[in-house]
Amino acid sequence: SAIVAQATQSLQIDGGKVRPPSTRDLALVELYGRVQILQALVAVRPEVLAFALLMEERLREKDAERAGNSWQRRGNLRQIGIALLSKAMAVDAAIIAGGHGLNHAVDAANYAMMVADLSGALHDGLGLSPRLRATLDSLGEEVR
Questions:
Q1: What is the DSSP-derived secondary structure letter of residue 7?
Q2: What is the DSSP string of 55-94?
Q3: Over the stretch 28-66, which tens digit does the pLDDT of each residue have?
Q4: Which residues contact 11 (CB under 8 A, 6 or more apart)?
Q5: % of the chain beyond a pLDDT of 70
Q6: What 3 state SS string does 27-42 have?
Q7: Do residues 111 and 90 lie in contact, with contact meaning Cβ atoms separated by under 8 Å?
Q8: Residue 26, SS3?
Q9: Rg of the chain over CA atoms, in angstroms?
């Protein structure tokens, strides 16, 4: 959209003076991104959405003891990577023992999300990363 293109420019020319995007411009970008996400959810596989809800449920369980989104404040990619590997091995052990390892799988997926978040794959300074925006655009095309 033209509004988003204009608002996401890091600098704008205003009567020969350079100025940053206005709060209103940034709010429009955020709103546009949220609308894209809602449109894309219609095209998301039910299994993916259901699993994402399990991930969110698990994160909320941990919020009380870690004050929410602690990986963003204390994010150590190496430690998160080790935790991810540990949870993946726990899933394998549970399956070998005849179980399904669902709780470990949810934890592993959350650690993978944290790696993506900290590495910048989910967002940039103004909102969504180019890769995620392209995915949302393609899912939105399926809905339209």
A1: H
A2: HHHHHHHHHHHHTS-HHHHH--HHHHHHHHHHHHHHHHHH
A3: 777 777 777 777 777 788 899 899 999 999 999 888 787
A4: 18, 19, 20
A5: 74
A6: HHHHHHHHHHHHHHHH
A7: no
A8: helix
A9: 19
